Structure formats: structure tokens, C-alpha cells
Amino acid sequence: MKEIFRIKSISQFHEILGLDRPLHPLISLIEDRDAIKKPDLDDKLFNIRFSSDLYSIMYKDKISGSIGYGRNTYDFQEGTIIFSSPGQVFTSPGKEDLKGKQGWTLLFHPDLIRKSVLGEKIDSYSFFSYEVNEALHLAPKEEKFLFELIRKIQEEYSQNIDQHSQTLIISNLELLLNYCMRFYDRQFYTRTNINKDFVAEFELALRQYFTSKKMETEGLPSAPYFGSKLNMSTNYLSDMLKKETGRSIKEHIDGYIIDRAKSVLLSTNKKVSEIAYDLGFNYPQSFTRLFKSKTGMSPGEYRNVN
Length: 306
Hints:
The chain has helices spanning 10-17, 32-35, 95-98, 110-113, 117-121, 140-158, 165-190, 192-211, 214-218, 223-229, 234-245, 249-267, 272-278, 284-295, 299-305, and strands at 4-7, 27-31, 49-52, 55-61, 66-69, 72-75, 80-84, 89-91, 102-108, 136-137. By secondary structure, the protein is α+β, with helices and mostly antiparallel strands. It folds into two domains: 4-190, Regulatory protein AraC (Jelly Rolls, Sandwich), CATH 2.60.120.280; 194-305, Orthogonal Bundle (Arc Repressor Mutant, subunit A), CATH 1.10.10.60. Helix 8 packs across helix 11, helix 12 packs across helix 14 and helix 12 (249-267) crosses helix 15 (299-305). The longest helix is centred in the middle third of the chain and has 26 residues, at 165-190. The N and C termini lie far apart (59 Å). 28% of the residues are buried.
């Protein structure tokens, strides 16, 4: 397995590419056409596995090779954006694959947003944890619009830094991310027929989990289990379910548990603790808390009033 190369800062990224020092220490726009000009970069950054301490928003267009992300690879055939958060692992495309292609990468360090509202809500942009094959595919108008926002960010950090610079950079960055969220919603909507098949597949996997011996050996199912089962990142599957059904993975799991519990409570004389263990809970109190949070009454109260 190839060694993973770690990038710790914007300055280090510029240095590797042979670019001038960044104009801002915590954010930078790097265009592919600048990155491939250096003749000696093949062994440094192309065709290698790397991770970074940075957030990245990467636009690629019609790349003939592929980009690896985690355990998956993706061939870019149209204008596409992928997002990554600190610590994720990529395998970069070859230098030859990038020649003559359009692309850019916006990098920013967590310290840029750490004390801002965006820093508090950055985890809500769940696409930073999607797999590369769950990338955002842009319509031409969307490409143009996002690049205009990118240029505004670049123009702002390229000026002399003053008391307004940080606020304006972050506000434009947040605007960019909000539009990406909108475009992802559009993508979920346009793929709704395909997504319905995934919803059905998820619901089948959920039923099978509770009717199999997995309950006995592994306990309650986890959200990552279903992501792996459907070959999706956990966040992408959860967001897709939310768009299609109004409920996340966890809400689906909790709902299924409550429905099964109600049936058993009303059709048997089993003790609440037995039902809890049968449903995969290690502690009956945890089951009782979940049941009460979803129904407004304890399992015993539910049994007595129905």
C-alpha cells in the first residue's frame, strides 16, 4: 500500500506545487493549469495517496483518469465538485490526466472559521463527508455561478488584509456552501426515481437486520452498517433518505424499533426488559427512554392504555 502523504498547511501545499507563497495563510484558490506547469511534480503530488489538515472544495471537468477517495475511485466526465474535510484520504489523478482540463481547488484551514458562526455549523454541511462517487454534478449555469463566488473570495483575500477581510471571506465562503447545499438538493430531486430504489433497498436491509441473527450477535444496527450495505457514505445515505422520506437513517431505525415494540407490547405478556433485550438493547432503561421520547409514554403506560 502506498504511503499516505500528509499536507498540514496552505503554505506547504503551495510549496509542493512550486507556487508562490499564498496571499493568505488560511485560504487559497489553486487552479489546475498553474499546478501542472512544473516539470518535476509527478513524484511529489500526482498519483499518490494524500490527506490534509484542510477543508477542500475541488472542481474537476472531464478528467480522463480517476481520483481516489477512501476505498472508491471516480472518473470525472463532466463538471463535478467534491468536498473533503481534514483527515480524509485521496489518491490524486496523474499529471497527464489533467493537461488541457479545467479545474480548481479551494483550500481553507479550520482556523479560518474556528471562531465564526460558520465554524459552529460546518458539520451541518454533510457533503464534506460524502464519498467521491457521490460528488455534486453541476449544470453549466451552476458552474459559472459558483466560480463567480470563488473569484469573490479570491479577490477578497488577495487585497491588503484589514478589519473587514475575515468577515467578508467567511461570509462569501458560507454563501458558496449554502448554494452547494441547494444544488445538492436539486441533484437529489432530479435523481428521485433512482433514489426510490435505494430507499426500498434500505428498508429491506432494515427489516432483514431485525429478523436475522445479527440482533443477537451485534445488537442494535448502526447508521454506518447501512451505508456500507448500500455502498454509500453514511451522510449521503442519510441525506438522501431525508429528502425522499423526511427521515434520516437514525430516525428510520428508531421508528422501526418503536413499531416492533408496540406490536410486541400489545400482543404478548413479555416483560419490558425482555422486549428491550430482544430488540438489541443492552440496558432496558435505554429502550424505555427511546420509547418515551417517541411516544410520550413509557412502554408500560402504552400497554395499559391500549
